[in-house]
Amino acid sequence: MEKVIWVKSNMRTIGAKEDDGLTEVNKYLEDGWKVKHISASTMGDSIISGQAYIVIEKDE
Q1: What is the pLDDT of residues 1-54, one digit of tens each?
Q2: How far apart are CA 38 and CA 52, in angstroms?
Q3: Which residues contact 32 (CB under 8 A, 6 or more apart)?
Q4: Which contacts qualify for 42-47: CB closer than 8 Å, 24 or more apart?
């Protein structure tokens, strides 16, 4: 089984904890899922904001 999870980082919200999706990824990894693929890029013209998708998998 595979899942795709989008994560994002936006440094414009300094001081405010934004849900970036990594908590969800970490939960799956703790439950035995493995990272199959990661692809990342910047968001627009910003060099401090980015997004990624992470493909995780788990043998059934």
Answers
A1: 999 998 887 665 555 556 677 888 999 999 999 999 999 988 888 777 888 999
A2: 7
A3: 58
A4: 43/8, 43/10, 46/12
